[in-house]
Amino acid sequence: MSAETEARARVLRVIAAGRRIQDPNDPLGAEARARLPEVTGLDPKGVELALSAHLETHPTDAEIDALLARTGRAPRCHVVLAANVCTAPLRALALAAATSPDIVVRPSRRDPVVTDLLVRALSTDEAFVQTHHASLTRASSIAPAPGDELHVYGSDASIEAVTRGLPAGVCVRGHGTGIGLAIIGRDAALEDAAEALAWDVVPFDQRGCLSPRFVLVEGGEHHAEEFVQALDAALSRAAARVPRGSLDPALAAEIALYGASMDAVGLFLSRPSHAVGFDPSPRALVLPPAARVVHVVALAPTDAPNLLAPWAPYVTSVGLCDDGALARAVLDRAPFARRAPLGGMQRPPLDGPVDLRPSRA
């Protein structure tokens, strides 16, 4: 078997293990559903949404081809995971399996659940272990050697801390701080756009790097405020199906502080399930807390470059309803961001890391 064929086979075994976790009737799937609400803080229906709709368990052949083309090859691959998105370990370990048959993973201490289940599933997978001579080891620390790859997920600060003092010759692929934003064009059907965007906000309670935090609305203040009202209603409807997880006092205080700033410049709609802030004349973008809190601004295409300048390096995903002037202005500033239709921001193809920006390391 060629090296690429072996790498593909290992990736497919990781995905097969993910299907076990996705299946509520499999013991691994049942355990995931029992453990994840407590460690993630998501409502049980939020956990079910994550596992049933956002585990990448049915990639196409073309997606696997793209994933393999975006990975290197190394004798060993070390993976350091973050806790923001409970399903993220599946993609991360698929990338690691494409890179090497010898994988060492350090899960997040706050949420090791999916990692632990994948390790357990693959340790008893005869095709993974015996046929393809692969191993997946859980570790509390990592010690990559020259020639190894290290894949690090988390904030820019955490990547810097993990990679400080590494020996020369370790290939580091860092996937750092990222945010999503959405663009509502001048001619958008606002009710439809709001309904679709709500289902980009709800998964993982907006904690992932693909989650939209900013919404840029073309077409003037009145058009933008109409969208705010439509989004508020759509998020309420979504919460009736998938409630938001509980808020700790610190996060509730962050939302209150953000709301006060929005009340001072525009509008703040606070609900038990979500919040929407609106700035009709933005001089800067204000990042809201990641708790189903969305910051909406009215924006002309000519103003987009200046407003986005501080944020463009962090844009991981852009949700679009058209390819109008504002969309083009934003994508010019964020050329490495994934592009998705509204409603599809949280379902990227399994064609590589979700973060397609150059490595942050």
TrEMBL record:
One annotated GO molecular function is: acyl-CoA dehydrogenase activity
Q: Native species of this protein? A: Polyangium jinanense
Query: Is NADP found in the keyword set?
Result: yes
- Identification of the protein by name: Proline dehydrogenase
Region labeled Disordered — which residues? Answer: 342-361
Could you list the residue ranges that cross the membrane?
none
Q: Which SUPFAM superfamilies match?
A: ALDH-like
The alphabetical list of record keywords is: NADP
One Pfam family for this entry, by name?
LuxC
Annotated GO biological processes are: bioluminescence
InterPro entries linked to this entry? Ald_DH/histidinol_DH, CoA_reduct_LuxC
